[in-house]
Amino acid sequence: MKLYGFWRSLATYRVKVALALKGLAAEEVSIDLLKGRQHDKDYVAVNPQAVVPALVLDEGGPPLFQSLAILEYLEETQPRPPLLPKDPRGRARVRGLALIAAADGHPLVVPRIRTYMEKELKLDEPTRNRWLAHWTLKALEAIEVHLKGEKETGRFCHGDSPTLADICLAGQVIGAVGYFKCDVSGVPTCMRIYEECMKIDAFSKPHPLKQPGAAAH
Ligand SMILES: N[C@@H](CCC(=O)N[C@@H](CS)C(=O)NCC(=O)O)C(=O)O
Fold first, then answer.
1. Do 93 and 65 fall into the same domain?
2. Residues 70 and 102 both lie in one domain
3. CA 51 to ligand 1: nearest atom
4. Which end of the chain is more exposed for a tag (fewer CB within 10 A), N or C?
5. 153 has which bridge partners?
6. Neighbours of 19 (CB within 10 A)
């Protein structure tokens, strides 16, 4: 498999964690988002949305796109270890938690939004940073209410083994702590579970700030 991604990308991180948890390997191709390479003609031919990640399968065919769709594909084709619970209600809860991060929180802080705020809306850097930190924390606060109050929460977001929810939570915390310097004192359950995740190589090795690209920035 070939994974188009970028060291700083939280959506790429989600796919890398899932691949690692499932014991799958993929060759990585870096699309430098800081240099705008996602808009290069060659890459737009891979993913017309001009975003990473995209996953090319060994069997060929069009690349898979959207990290959660890729995670679901991996889950269906390589069910062990499972990243979704067996029961439909549990699956809905895990997907719901994952979506708070991946569908509601993360999209507000991606490069195209930041570029629009800077170039079109002419917002200064402190104002842009307030936006990034605010929406990143809002998603974690919503997840926190679920995690703190619901009996399904265990060592991880849902029970005692990692699921799609933990993968998305980990990325959201990396954004909050590593990128946007949020005050995370109000989301202790998220932080506790994040720390559990980081005890697992599949979560800690692909950490964006541990990638070679990060050292150069
Ligand atoms: N919902 C998408 C998000 C994809 C996305 O926005 N990726 C970011 C990096 S984390 C990107 O490539 N952004 C490029 C841009 O905004 O121009 C997914 O989960 O795959």
1. no
2. no
3. 12
4. C
5. 159
6. 21
The per-residue pLDDT for range 130-187, each reduced to its tens digit, is: 999 999 999 999 999 999 999 999 999 999 999 999 999 999 999 999 999 999 999 9
Per-residue pLDDT at 217: 73
Q: Domain holding 16: CATH number?
A: 3.40.30.10
Look over the chain and give the mean of its residue pLDDT values, rounded to a whole number.
Answer: 97
Domain assignment present for residue 40? The answer is yes
Q: Does the reported pTM lie above 0.70?
A: yes
Do 62 and 159 sit in the same domain of this protein? no
Ramachandran sector of residue 54 (left: φ over 0; alpha: ψ -120 to 50; beta: rest) = beta
102 lines ligand 1 (CB under 6 A): yes
Residue 140 domain-assigned (yes or no): yes
- Asked, for residue 216, whether it belongs to a domain, the answer is no
Pocket perturbation via mutation, ligand 1, pick of 7, 110, 114, 136 by most ligand atoms within 8 A of CB:
110
Write the pLDDT tens digit of every residue in 39-98. 999 999 999 999 999 999 999 999 999 999 999 999 999 999 999 999 999 999 999 999
> Could you list the residue range(s) of the whole structural domain that residue 195 is in?
88-204
**Domains identified in the chain, total number:** 2
Q: Is the distance from the beta carbon of residue 52 to the nearest atom of ligand 1 less than 6 Å?
A: yes
Ligand 1 atom 11: the closest Cα is on which residue?
51
Q: Is residue 212 part of a domain?
A: no
Is 91 close to ligand 1, i.e. is its CB under 6 Å away?
no
